[in-house]
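Retro notes (design track)

What went well: tokenization of the new backbones is finally stable.
What didn't: we kept losing track of which sequence belonged to which structure.
Fix going forward: every design gets posted as structure first, then sequence, in one message. First example under the new rule, 278 residues:
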């Protein structure tokens, strides 16, 4: 597999650039039903991103779907756009849910994607899906989404512990709403504007420290020496420095952290040896 940075760069570029698939070959989708957006990544039979679509939304809250019909409508819409771009039907998809999600909630995610016309062939917890891209053998992968902070601890390449708690990017936006008397939509736009990076970081520092504190509490019983941050809220400027200070272990984040989990979901349903069959 290509390096994580190169794969993520290709996934990000696939929002604008479409790579035609080999006619008749299988395609693999990763559907990330997030609190702030739904992202769909399509991989070809070589495991390379060929097209991506995303739509901002508020169909989930703290990892739970609160607008079932809205989630189906958006997923169908994204699937239709992608099929039009690549000129092929999308039939297989993987999904991810926050760690510790019960069967009813994971079933809701499955039903939404299957209602859009794709068969769900893999269900993962979000940090573990992210690690399909990162390839961490020992350490903790932290997925900071719109509503929750989830984590998976790896030892010798195996998951030994998972956890998930409310507090994510949405909570950052709520802080900005109160501080600057903005609407939620205005706060989201302000947060995502690179020109406001320093001001946003200062305003939401307590939220980021709370996220780091959640992770610190969960990893305390384990010998964790490395942390990786992924997810949309990990895009906060220098958030890895905040985590390093709180956790006391080296913390990194890859480029395009928002793309790690959806890409990892799609990689997770890629069959072993599929490159030989392409």
């Amino acid at each position: 597999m290509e390096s994580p940075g190169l794969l993520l760069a290709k996934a990000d570029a696939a929002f604008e650039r479409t790579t035609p698939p080999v006619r008749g070959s299988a395609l693999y989708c990763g559907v990330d039903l997030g609190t702030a957006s739904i992202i769909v990544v399509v991989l070809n039979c070589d495991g390379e991103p060929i097209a991506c679509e995303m739509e901002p939304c508020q169909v989930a809250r703290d990892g739970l779907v609160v607008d079932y019909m809205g989630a189906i409508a958006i997923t169908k819409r994204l699937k239709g756009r992608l099929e039009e771009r690549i000129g092929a039907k999308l039939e297989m998809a993987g999904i991810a849910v926050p760690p510790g999600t019960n069967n009813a909630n994971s079933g809701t995610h499955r039903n939404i994607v299957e209602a859009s016309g794709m068969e769900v062939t893999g269900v993962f917890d979000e940090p573990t899906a992210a690690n399909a891209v990162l390839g961490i053998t020992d350490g903790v992968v932290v997925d900071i989404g719109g509503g929750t902070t989830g984590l998976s601890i790896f030892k010798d390449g195996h998951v030994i512990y998972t956890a998930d708690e409310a507090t994510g990017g949405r909570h950052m936006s709520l802080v900005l709403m109160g501080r600057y008397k903005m609407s939620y939509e205005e706060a989201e736009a302000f947060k995502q504007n690179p020109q406001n990076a320093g001001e946003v970081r200062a305003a939401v520092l307590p939220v980021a420290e709370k996220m780091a504190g959640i992770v610190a509490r969960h990893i305390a019983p384990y010998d964790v020496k490395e942390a990786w941050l992924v997810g949309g809220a990990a895009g906060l400027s220098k958030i890895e420095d905040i985590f390093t200070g709180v956790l006391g272990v080296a913390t990194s984040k890859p480029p395009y952290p928002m793309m790690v989990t959806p890409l990892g979901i799609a990689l997770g349903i890629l069959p072993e040896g599929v490159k030989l069959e392409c």
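Added context from the reviewer: The chain has two domains: 4-126+259-277, 130-255.
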